[in-house]
Amino acid sequence: MKLPFLEQEIDVRTDLRESNDILDNPLALKERMHEDGYLLIRDLHAKDEVLAARKVILEKLDGKGMLLPDAPLMDGIFNPDYPEPTSTGSMGNKQLTKLPEFQAVVEGKPVMGFFKEFLGGEARTFDFKWLRTAGPGSGSHIHYDIVFMGRGTQDLYSCWTPFGDVSLDMGPIVFCLGSNRFDKVRKTYGQSDVDRDLIEGHFSHKPLDVIEKFGGYWATTSFSAGDVIIFSMFLMHASLVNTSDKIRITADTRYQLASEPIDERWIGENPKGHYSWKQKDAKIEPLEESRRRWGV
Ligand SMILES: O=C(O)CCC(=O)C(=O)O
Ligand SMILES: [Fe+2]
Questions:
Q1: Is the CB of 253 under 6 A from ligand 1?
Q2: Of 142, 219, 220, which Cα lies nearest the Cα of 185?
Q3: Distance of CA 257 from the midpoint of ligand 2 (Å)
Q4: Is the pLDDT assigned to residue 248 strictly greater than 70?
Q5: Cα(first)–Cα(last) distance of the chain, in Å?
Q6: Cα atoms in the 13 Å half-sphere on the side-chain side of 138
Q7: Do 179 and 231 meet the contact criterion of CB atoms below 8 Å apart?
Q8: Distance of CA 194 to CAs 89, 161, 163, 212, 284, Å?
Q9: From 232's CA, which of 16, 138, 142, 201 has a CA 20 to 30 Å away?
Q10: Which ligand lies nearest the alpha carbon of 240?
Q11: What is the pLDDT of residue 90?
C-alpha cells in the first residue's frame, strides 16, 4: 500500500516475516539474520512490562505539556499547542531513559537472554538509549546504523521496541529489504563515520530512488506492545511519517557480545555521543557531494 516517507509517498509492503517459529534455534536465527537482515519477534516482552514503562514515560511527557489535556493518559495524544517541534530525534533524554520501568524492558531478561543465545555468549547493551517521542508529522530519513555507531564490533544489532501499539499511521520503522546486499553502498557509505567524516548521516531522502537504483523493496508492519524488531547495522531503514494525532513512543537500543570491542561514544554514565557531527560550527558535507565521492 502507499505509505508516506518524509519526502515521498511510495508503495510499501506490510508483510515483514515473523521469526517466532525459530526462536529456540540460534543457528536458524543467525542464518535468517544473514539472509534477511532482520528478525521480527512478536511478544518478546510481557505486554504489562512494556505498558508499565509507557505509563511512566507518558507521565513525564504530560508533565512537560506534550499531551492533550484531559485526554486519557495511555492514549498518548499529542498536544497541538505544545510549543516545541517533536521529532524522531528527541532521544537520549536521561529523565526518560533512566526510568527503571524503561530499563527493565531494554535491559531485561527477555532481550538480554535473546542476545546471549543469538550471539553465543554474554551480551551487553550500549549505555546510551535512543528513546524517541515522535509527534505528528515526524519521521526518520533513510540510513544504515553503522555510520553512527561503528567504532567497535560490527557484530552489533539494533533492537527497535515500541512502547505501546504502533499502527501503520503512527510512523513505524520501515526497511529496505535487500539493502544488506548493496555491496558498493556497504563499501562506501557503510564504511563512513559521521563524527569523522562529517557527512549528513542518512543516505537518501528518496526511498523510490534507492530501490530503482540498487534494487530491493520497502517493507514494514504494525506493532503491538511487547513486539521487537532486531536488525543488522547494514540494513537500510527509515521511519514512516506519523500521520496520527498520537505520539509514537519507541526505543532503539544496541546489543553485542560483551567480549568484543565497543564504540566508546555510547558507553558510561554520561556517554560522549556525537562529539563532532552536527555540533556547533561543524561543516557537514552535502549528501549529493558524499554520494558523488562514493560513486553511488
Ligand atoms: O524510530 C525511528 O524513527 C528511527 C529508528 C532507527 O533509525 C533505528 O531504530 O535505528
Ligand atoms: Fe537507525
A1: no
A2: 142
A3: 20
A4: yes
A5: 28
A6: 20
A7: no
A8: 16, 24, 28, 26, 9
A9: 138
A10: 1
A11: 59
Q: Is 250 in the pocket of ligand 1 (CB under 6 A)?
A: yes
Q: How many CA atoms does the CB half-sphere of 169 hold within 13 Å?
A: 4
Distance CA 165, CA 224 (A): 4
* Residue among 88, 203, 234, 255 to mutate when testing ligand 1 (max atoms within 8 A of CB): 88
Q: Which domains does the chain have, with CATH numbers?
A: 2-294 (2.60.120.620)
* 86-100, 152-166, 199-213, range with the lowest pLDDT: 86-100
Instruction: Give, in order, the Cα–Cα distances in Å from 72 to each of 39, 49, 75, 242.
Output: 33, 19, 6, 20
At residue 215, what is the residue type? G
Q: Where do we find the cell 506493532? A: 223
Sole residue written with cell 534507492:
210
Q: Quickly count: other Cβ atoms within 10 Å of residue 42's Cβ.
A: 15
Q: Which atom of ligand 1 is nearest to the CA of 132?
A: 1
- State residue 93's pLDDT score: 81
Place of cell 499547542: 81
